[in-house]
Amino acid sequence: MSAVQSDPGTTPYAARSGTLANAGGLIARLRADRALLRRVLMIGGVAIVAAVALVMWLFGGRYVSTDDAYVQAGKLMVSTDVSGLVKDVEVKEGQEVKKGDVLFRLDTQPFQIAVQNAKAQLDQTALQIDAMKQDYQRMQANIRSQKAQVELAQRNYDRYARLLKASAISEATYDTARLTLSSARDQLASLQHAADQQLAMLGGNPDAPTREQPQYLEAQARLNEAQRQLEHSVVRAPFAGVVAEVDSLQPGTLVISAMSAFSTTSAVGLVATHDTWVEAHLKETDLTHVHQGDPATFTVDTYPGCTWYGHVGSVSVSTGSAFSVLPAENASGNWVKVVQRIPVKIAIDRGNCDRNLRVGMSTIASIDTGQRRWYRMLFGG
Question: What is the pTM of this model?
Answer without folding.
Answer: 0.61
